[in-house]
Write a structure and sequence with these properties.
Strand content of chain B: under 5%
Shape of chain A: extended
Helix content of chain A: over 70%
Largest sheet of chain A: none
Oligomer: heterodimer
Structural class of chain B: mainly alpha
Number of helices of chain B: 3
Largest interface: A-B, 64 and 64 residues
Number of helices of chain A: 5
Number of strands of chain B: 0
Strand content of chain A: under 5%
Chain lengths: 133, 101
């Protein structure tokens, strides 16, 4: 399961960027909750019959070309643009400053997100009931 | 040579393109969802890098919100996939052509 490895490595990159709180949240939410959900659904659906590859050559080639073009655009922009601030980074994304910003300037979005989580939870329970009416 | 913002952005771009490739090429709904997660994570990495190198904490707050919304989205999406599988016995997008003319 390389997705878990990728997510854990991203958490490591967050630590390197001094975003300690986000690294912890990444490990907890992604490597914990989301991965468990994915594995649970894979187990539930029993995708052994689905393993047959149905990748068409045409779609694979055209997708590769399109994605390569997008990657080229990204890298070109990176090379051209001046990302600028040469000042040595001094930002510390530990829990205290992040929580301070979260509960003062971003209080309303924070509450809206909590409401969104409640709605998602109710929706999931309703969706996974035995018979949808 | 110190690691600058460019390196993080290149990693983020590569991750995003790999996720997009997964969404485009693979036809299984679950695999497409994993590609979606990869793309969200790439955006998160870019935002955290920008936040770090511009000395602005707003990017990290934004990443926090993205993670929350992504968790809700995964929960709802996987519930939808399970409901769909229960009804149609398939998770392939090419088998789901009910609305095709």
């Amino acid at each position: 399961m390389f997705l878990v490895l990728t997510i854990a490595s991203l958490a490591g990159l967050f630590v390197l960027l001094h975003a300690f709180f986000l690294a912890a949240v990444q490990v907890l939410v992604y490597a914990g909750a989301v991965m468990v959900l994915f594995l649970f659904v894979i187990m539930l659906l029993d995708l052994r019959a689905e393993e047959r590859q149905r990748v068409r050559v045409f779609s694979a080639v055209s997708g590769l070309i399109a994605v390569g073009a997008i990657l080229l655009v990204f890298l070109q922009t990176l090379l051209q643009g001046s990302l600028g601030s040469d000042q040595s980074p001094s930002l510390e994304g530990s829990t205290i400053p992040l929580g301070h910003v979260l509960f003062t300037r971003f209080l309303l979005p924070f509450e809206i997100v909590s409401l969104l989580l409640l709605v998602a939870m109710v929706g999931v329970i309703l969706l996974s009931k035995k018979d949808l009416k | 040579m110190s690691i600058g913002i460019e390196h993080y952005l290149v990693v983020s771009a590569i991750l995003f393109c790999l996720g997009l490739l997964g969404v485009i090429v693979r036809r299984n709904l679950l695999i497409m969802y994993m590609g979606l997660e990869l793309m969200l994570n790439a955006a998160n990495l870019a935002l955290v890098a920008f936040s770090r190198f511009n000395n602005n904490l707003d990017g990290q707050v934004f990443v926090f919100f993205i993670i929350t919304v992504a968790a809700a989205e995964v929960a709802v999406g996987l519930a939808l996939i399970v409901a769909l599988y229960r009804k149609r016995q398939t998770a392939h997008v090419e088998d789901l052509t009910l609305m095709k003319l």
